[in-house]
Amino acid sequence: MQVSSLNEVKIYSLSAGRSLPEWLSDRKKRALQKKDVDIRRRIELIQDFEMPTVSTKIKVSRDGQYIMAVGTYKPRVRCFDTYQLSQKFERCLDSEVVTFEILSDDYSKIVFLECGRFVEFHSQHGHYYKTRIPKFGRDFSYHYPSCDLYFVGASSEVYRLNLEQGRFLNSLQTEASESNVCDINPVHFLFAMGTAEGKVECWDPRTRNRVGMLDCALSSVTADTEIEGLPSISALKFDGALNMAVGTSTGQVLLYDLRSSNPLIVKDHHYGLPIKSIQFQHQLDLIISADSRIVKMWNKDTGKIFTSMEPEHDINDVCLYPNSGMLMTANEAPKMNIYYIPVLGPAPKWCSFLDNLTEELEENPESTVYDDYKFVTRKDLENLGLAHLIGSSLLRAYMHGFFMDIRLYHKAKMMANPFAYEEYRREKIRQKIEETRAQRVQLKKLPKVNKELALKLIEEEGEDQQFSKKRKQKNLPSLLKDDRFKVMFENPDFQVDEQSEEFRLLNPLVSKISEKRKRKLKILEELEAQGQEEEEEPEGKASDAESSESSDDEKGWVEEVRKQRKLLRQEEKLKRQERLKEDQQTLLKPQFFEIKEGEEFRSFKDSAKKQKLMKKTLEDRLKLEEKLGTLNVSDTTVGSKQATFKLKKSEQQRKQQEAEKLHRQERKTLRRSASHLKSRRGRGRLF
């Protein structure tokens, strides 16, 4: 049994764990249960509660004794007896079931709507009758007062089949091109149908007239939602006499009061997937809506999320066991999931032992679902070399990161850093040795990191203690003993760099103070090396000397800042000279680059000119183009401006034009020379 918690709501997954194959013998199953601990610990609430491949619909009979489910492959229906906690019967069908309805209190009367336009009736013994409807059906509802079945589907008509007379009645003509779902109110028997155009039409079965229409597609579009395409109605459910919930194909759930055309609340699943099922939970005033990815439970008055569930496989249908906290789902997988949520209600009477079991688990909390997973961010995945797994089933997105299997995480970490365990082991050994050393009688030692800062804090503490004794005040806690600042004196990453420019400028008098501390450090290190006890701190100077020093601090501070700046400038000059020497010593070799075919080399000056032009304003660019002759601005008769542009010709076009000009000039010269020769010949003949 797996336990997950969201918003402090415990959800127990009763179908978690591996399932044994059907073809295994009882002897082999018992042997596997003895060997495998996971199989032995699993809870099989209902024996063989699964389908061969996929389960599509699941329902509970009105007496609560039978659970019926349909699935593939081959198309079949299975009935489970809750009193026996096992399967009662299984029947195979000719085609896949779209939906079905249990007409009686038990399993004795069932109607199946199948893919091939067939409507199949089953009684207690098995198949009873089979008929067809004119168009492909998508949903149907049963009207108890008149014994009529209302079928909706790929047609504008609603087909009526009377079970008392055994014949089709006049159909209802609607304005919709197609209808997806339908439902009948259990109080006043109002018939409602959801259309592909995103509308809900309500009909009165007594007069067979339409009494109202709701435009849900328009109401589902709010400021917070992003919708692609026209939303169609994918789910519909009545609650009492006045409330109705509508699910759209774009992932919104709208709660209506039948007396108003505006929805009371619009809840978005934020996945953009069609709503598959809507259920009402009356004890806590909750609405349970599900798409193919998630089951959400939320308050119908405020819209606040109560809890949610995300199964491993896509959801096809959701069924809430009446007057209990049990929830069942039909999935795109062989196993049908069973969840128990104690907050919603008690366990059904046929499995009342679940209450005792969950109480024991709450008293002795064990590992939850997320204990077997590791939370990693995108940066962690890149460091481990697993960024290519984003979007796969191995990673489950959650908040600003992902959940991944802890075993996969350990394997990837070992491959990324194979010596991490050895380093961790050495660090642990070092910590153990230091713990044992701490138990001995030791000298007062300064930390390995930031020794000068620690010495400064010790001196300040001594001064504060003397001052507090005089004033009779309480001593402040020491920073060296505070766990919050412990890492600053242990981790070398927190070491203060005294050679940095910022430190030298912000602390100009640190050189004078550091000299005193360095002397004390040397004395302490010598004492530690010799193994002797720590001597008393050297006495300070007289009070008049200290006062004279404090009076000269301001002058010394300005001089020290100037000195530090001069030193920094000298260091920068030395660094530049070293760089120049290195640049002179290095010989730059020319590099040659090959230009691709069809491209021409353009000088770097052109790119620099283009960059300068892009930085200029539009007005400056237009003036420049007017000077070049590529732009002509003129006034029109209306009073507006007219601008004509001349496109710049590429170098290929220019070369081509120049070649054409040369060719024309050559032809002209040839023609002139030919005409000149002819004229000379004509003159010679005349003479």
TrEMBL record:
Residues 369-417 form the Nucleolar protein 10-like second domain. InterPro entries: Beta-prop_NOL10_N, NOL10/Enp2, NOL10_2nd, NUC153, WD40/YVTN_repeat-like_dom_sf, WD40_repeat_dom_sf. It is found in: Nucleus, Nucleolus. Residues 648-663 have a biased composition (Basic and acidic residues). Residues 1-364 form the Nucleolar protein 10-like N-terminal domain. Coiled coil: none annotated. GO terms for cellular component: 90S preribosome; small-subunit processome. Its main location: nucleus. Residues 664-687 have a biased composition (Basic residues). Keywords: Coiled coil, Nucleus, Repeat, WD repeat. Residues 528-557, 644-687 are annotated as: Disordered. GO terms for biological process: maturation of SSU-rRNA from tricistronic rRNA transcript (SSU-rRNA, 5.8S rRNA, LSU-rRNA). Residues 528-538 have a biased composition (Acidic residues). Residues 482-508 form the NUC153 domain. SUPFAM superfamilies: WD40 repeat-like. The keyword Metal-binding does not apply. The keyword Ribosomal protein does not apply. PANTHER family: NUCLEOLAR PROTEIN 10 (PTHR14927:SF0). Belongs to the WD repeat NOL10/ENP2 family. This is Nucleolar protein 10.
